[in-house]
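Researcher: Final request for today, and then I'll write up notes for the group meeting. The sequence and the SMILES for pyridoxal-5'-phosphate follow.
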Amino acid sequence: MRRVYLDNNATTPVLPEVLDAMRPYFGEHFGNASSIHHHGQETRAAVERARESVASLLGSRPAEIVFTSGGTEADNLAIFGLARPGDHIITSTIEHHAVLNSCKQLQERGIEATFVPVDGRGLVNPDDVKRALRSNTKLVTTMFANNETGVIQPVEDIGRICAEADVYFHTDGVQAASKIPIDVRAIGCDLLSISGHKFHAPQGVGALYVRKGTKLDPLFYGGSHERSRRAGTENVPGIVGLGKAAELAMKAFAAGEDREMAAQRDMLETAILDKVDSTGVNGAGAPRVPNTTNVYFDYIEGEALIISLDLKGLSVSTGAACSSGAIEPSHVLTAMGLRPDRARASIRFSLGKQNTAGDVDFVVELVPAAVERLRELSPLYNRSSAVRS
Ligand SMILES: Cc1ncc(COP(=O)(O)O)c(C=O)c1O
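Model: Predicted protein-pyridoxal-5'-phosphate complex:
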């Protein structure tokens, strides 16, 4: 059976070039990057080359890149590294749980937090951030691109507001990296998180950009790795993979692959909306990353559609992978004002570099039939079609 994977916001396959770059660091070049002998120097050089690639992808200096175990750790390092008792922090209602639950944990420790809302398109209003500022606000943390809808936030405007107020600005760039160009200087952020497995590097490696001069407490205590910002022996193969993926992402931008992907996504979206009634795009009208579309199919349960599509060979999801199995509707979609039933009827399709035009055709064939079958079983749909006819 043909299998198509359109859940690249959950994770992506490691590209062959990335795997090739990593392979020697599992065997031949196994040294501890902190060792001063030949074996250590070899891996140290590889880690520093990767740091340069990641810095180029983000527009930072190499010394401002801290390697982590992924996006969650990068988000936690930014947030717990800065917030102190007596501080106030600002975030948004649509953050990934890595940020949302970190902020909630800070609240339990007595730190005040404001969660700014989003509009119907899923956009934070920078003026809401400005209005939420207090004299003790230490940090604003709002994401760059949303993992469920792909909606790109006005981070440059928020960055400007934070700079004027002399407040730290962290943005979770996990779903933006490699999808849209990132320039930390243009954003004006002090911290930005990325995760390798969202752009064809392996799972379990990521990075935090930390602007020079930012006073950040570490999460872990141990050796003085990563300029004392992240103790622990470096994951050299993972870091090498992240560096290679960053390099490939820059080449892909230069070749216009992001525009090609947006065209493929638009084809998929338009075809589904044309073929299936009572559907719509969540986040329509807002700027979005090129690979993501989040579509609601009224009168069905998203989980049922996912299972039915899976049985036919298509892997997609309802949104955040970690909330799969939970019956709660997506906090992102409900924050955008969707009714719970419409939020539960929403599916995320996210493309990756490995997807082909044939994959899109396959999906466009499969989805309308699967939706129709589920709607046939839905008393709600029958009633409403009776009303409509
Ligand atoms: C926006 C966003 N932030 C953070 C994370 C967590 O990254 P990781 O899986 O590398 O811990 C994810 C993963 O889904 C994400 O989409």
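Model: The CA atoms of residues 291 and 298 lie 23 Å apart. The mean pLDDT is 95.
Researcher: Thanks, that's everything.
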